[in-house]
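A favour, since you know our structure tokens better than I do. Go ahead and set the record down below.
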Amino acid sequence: MAETDWLLDTSILVDVLRGYTEARDWIDSIAEAHRFTSVITAAELIAGCRNRAEQRKIERELQVYTPVWLDQDISQEALDLYRRFYLSHGIGFHDCLIAATAIRRKYRVATLNLKHFKIFSNIKANRPY
């Protein structure tokens, strides 16, 4: 059976960076080749930095995941999702970009915020711990 490719949402990496054992144990249970982060997640983490030391810590952590860059297909999918769900569900564009990445790359989303992804019927999202 093939191993699952995981797109890690910001909430998971925040827990890892805060030193939560459950988060680190779960991440460590996944082979590095199956751990992915969106450029959006990296930007959200950097936006939360209060100083250079925190930014360096984030940069070190991000090195153990494969980054997923936005391309035309992901961007178009994200805009389509945003048009479809913003008014009816108040979905944020960053969540649409992450959702579109999962859809286009066929990743499972690991998040602590399942409500952000429940409106997308073609995404498998899990709260892993």
